Amino acid sequence: MAPETTQTGRAALPLPPMKWDAWGDPELAKPLSDDIKGLLAAALGVSGGDGERLTADQVVLTPSRLAKEDAEALAAAVGAEWLSTADADRLPRAGGKSTPDLLRRRSRDAQDAPDAVLLPGTEEEIAAVLALCAERRIAVVPFGGGTSVVGGVDPERGPFTAVLSLDLRRFDRLHELDEVSGEAVLGAGVTGPRAEELLGERGWELGHFPQSFRYATIGGFAATRSSGQDSAGHGRFDDMVSGLRVVTPAGTLDLGRAPASAAGPDLRELFLGSEGVLGIITAVRLRVHRKPESTVYGAWSFPDFATGAAALRAVEQQGTGPTVIRLSDEAETAINLAMTDKIGGTTVTGGCLAVTLFEGAAEHTVFRDEATAAVLAAAGGTPLGPDPATAWEHGRFNAPYLRDALLDAGALCETLETATGWANLPVLKAAVTEALQSALRESGTESLVMCHISHVYPTGASLYFTVVAAQRGDALAQWAGAKRAACDAIMANGGTITHHHAVGADHRPWLEQEIGELGVRILRAVKETVDPAGILNPGKLIP
Amino acid sequence: MAPETTQTGRAALPLPPMKWDAWGDPELAKPLSDDIKGLLAAALGVSGGDGERLTADQVVLTPSRLAKEDAEALAAAVGAEWLSTADADRLPRAGGKSTPDLLRRRSRDAQDAPDAVLLPGTEEEIAAVLALCAERRIAVVPFGGGTSVVGGVDPERGPFTAVLSLDLRRFDRLHELDEVSGEAVLGAGVTGPRAEELLGERGWELGHFPQSFRYATIGGFAATRSSGQDSAGHGRFDDMVSGLRVVTPAGTLDLGRAPASAAGPDLRELFLGSEGVLGIITAVRLRVHRKPESTVYGAWSFPDFATGAAALRAVEQQGTGPTVIRLSDEAETAINLAMTDKIGGTTVTGGCLAVTLFEGAAEHTVFRDEATAAVLAAAGGTPLGPDPATAWEHGRFNAPYLRDALLDAGALCETLETATGWANLPVLKAAVTEALQSALRESGTESLVMCHISHVYPTGASLYFTVVAAQRGDALAQWAGAKRAACDAIMANGGTITHHHAVGADHRPWLEQEIGELGVRILRAVKETVDPAGILNPGKLIP
């Protein structure tokens, strides 16, 4: 059967779960209130902007460059019904969901997109596709939920004739649940909610809740070293991974034989964070746990960020065991960003808000809450009762919707994140804030830079920044300048270029500063071994 | 100044802290009682044996093959006083401390040893040495405490003209202690006790207590993925590492910028477990903690190993937080192996002994003990009070001394270890036990195979086996057969080839089964990048 080669028309394939030009589910989007618009105009000079959205029909994509004979060979490998070059299939895989991505989706110029979309169903089909692509000089971009905010799924062709989006959504099964060991093997294409549904039917949960939870996939979490909001209790996603299956052009890897091992370098740690550049992750073995029998919520106010950060540090270093612990700085607290449903309310809250959440066996949960409360109180916190924490939990996945409304209103809005040791946290926070504000001021706008700590470790913590400013001139170039200033400030002040957003295309210029010139050479040597033709996700991760 | 090139005579360099032909400090060695000897004769047919030890003067080493001009060049690089080809310096670095190593040290045949010993004092000197060795085709074996039990410091020349032992003992400093972040930077040559001393002066501790603690070094712990007896509370050594400095022939790496990062593959995890094959670790940044204010001990009896293992699993999966938790099987419990000072006592203890230890803030320690006790009691444990746990702690580093006395008495004694998921634990334990007993029976002796769990994870645990049998014929060949059978059983039954002893020369034939053919090719590609001449620790780790 000949593959679908029309450039427009209806989608031939199942679509990604997320809207093509905005975050998430269009039903959940909310326009800004006139009050907020007035505030943005007064404080930041935000006005109308030319950011109106196109309909999908109005978007012009660059035509597919996939040669007919290549399309036929690929269709033969996966079944013609799983290959499409239709615009309606290509557009939703044209990029991720960074602010630059969303701005690009508003352009009336021809937009770049993968030349075809492919949905293989087995590892053997992936291996066959990779062999064909290596032979025919076609680049391959693995695609999960399409939630990248670092250009990780940009359809870059590199030196190749065409680029495919290889969507993993058919790898959608719970392969195995070992209820004794507390381990599950999940297909790479399983989304966050589907993972919880599959495990939940048997009384288990994964407990990985990044902001992309509703759309992102198991394979994507692994490939990007995702970190969820419950990381204090359950660890980062990479901590949960005990095994990985990876198909590469040079063969298939099945890594991870034991809960811990001293059998040399840990190769799982090469493929965690490999961002589709070293192979296609097809299945992940994960630590899971029984659904908690109780949840206890708490919230605290601290007079300032330094006091609050010291309190979180004390909790983590004493190990009193919160499942979630977060701290918003003064700016974020003032506009209630931690409780998205309350943003734009008339109350301006002072100080810094922290929320805590404890899950587990009832008695154990109560004890951990009490032990943590004692530490937080001793460190200068004032208890606020559970309500701010339940409000945070209720709106925990909604912040990205705000961005779409802000872009519509002519504001620029984006987030970025880093991490460092506790001692260096204030230095890094001040430097990044200053870099963003200066760069945006140079572009002609004041800015609001907010920050929170959402992931704590005994030795340090993450810093997550949210920036709002007025769009001035070319908003893409405007943000590129601010982002560059922030990244330079991160590297100059001892932070990591990314705590959980990954490298992709956007952070790639800074990776050599992070791992050194020899580190880059090591990555290139690994790449050369597993992908000698270099077809996997060109232009990402490795400089 | 000309280097020391005499083949015999007094040591020119500071010596390793451990006796050359036996474990540890000769003052602590104890001969077996006549009761135990009688028991060994009756149960296993152990008799005299020809295992008497030589004095150092009686040992004949193969002469140093280091060419005079090479020695002069190396002496110029590090200072002549830090290079020696004297037998008295070469013998203590001739191998590690596996049973085969100790048997080899008893041989009257010429024993192999490094051709010279070198003690560089700076990273620049190491880089200069590596450059010279690459140019002059000389192999380099990094040396820490010399406690390897897998042939990790065997003086293998590979295709090279000579082999150096590069002793890291001059990298002996606490470089930095960040009391806010709880991080310390320690030199690679700092031993376990010295690390605790340096940190302890300021109220901090590392808390890494493997059986090799008294002699092994920070660099060795990192290079071998060591795991200490407090791993339940403080994690494995690789978990504690936040940064590494590594000198390679291709340049120096400084890895680890943050407590956690999503900046691509984690290259620290390539050098943790790299066993001197990919570079020379010179300094390690480590998570440390304040000395605990209280310690609570507990001990429990379980009717059988399966019940005890299920109890440990419940503790770890519920996360009640012991610092130490261990379980001996019936055989190990019967001879009191967990309390080395009581071995050979007249009491034969039934069931399976578990010990627990909790460290931390007083209130928190008491709660964790109570929460753990509730889980252990519910899982079928009978409390025994604290005494067996304090007895275990008192003798925790002494078991290796027993082996020397057993070898003297004509017994064969060795340990080996693996790990797997909780569900697979009984299968793996039975298979390894059976493999060892069968192989030793074929060699003409019954054997006592004992086992304990000393490292627990939410998804699984380690299994640590101790084997005692009679020496029959060539004891080296006899043990090689038993070890091969055990390794094959581990791989056939889903275990890892090593949980914390590392790969070295002895486990190398099984590494490809562990990580796959493509995994081996990846390691080779990394090796080729950082050590193109292949001079670093030939014959170890990478098949």
UniProtKB/TrEMBL annotation, chains A, B:
Domain FAD-binding PCMH-type per the UniProt entry, residue ranges: 110-291
Segments for region (Disordered): 90-110
Domain of life of the source: Bacteria
Pfam annotation, one family: FAD-oxidase_C
Keywords: FAD, Flavoprotein
InterPro entries with a match to the protein in the record: Alkyl-DHAP_Synthase, FAD-bd_oxidored_4_C, FAD-bd_PCMH, FAD-bd_PCMH-like_sf, FAD-bd_PCMH_sub2, FAD-linked_Oxase-like_C, Oxid_FAD_bind_N, Vanillyl_alc_oxidase_C-sub2
Gene3D superfamilies: 3.30.300.330, 3.30.465.10, 3.30.70.3450, Vanillyl-alcohol Oxidase, Chain A, domain 4
Family the UniProt entry places it in: Belongs to the FAD-binding oxidoreductase/transferase type 4 family.
Protein name per the record: FAD-binding oxidoreductase
Taxonomic path: Bacteria, Bacillati, Actinomycetota, Actinomycetes, Kitasatosporales
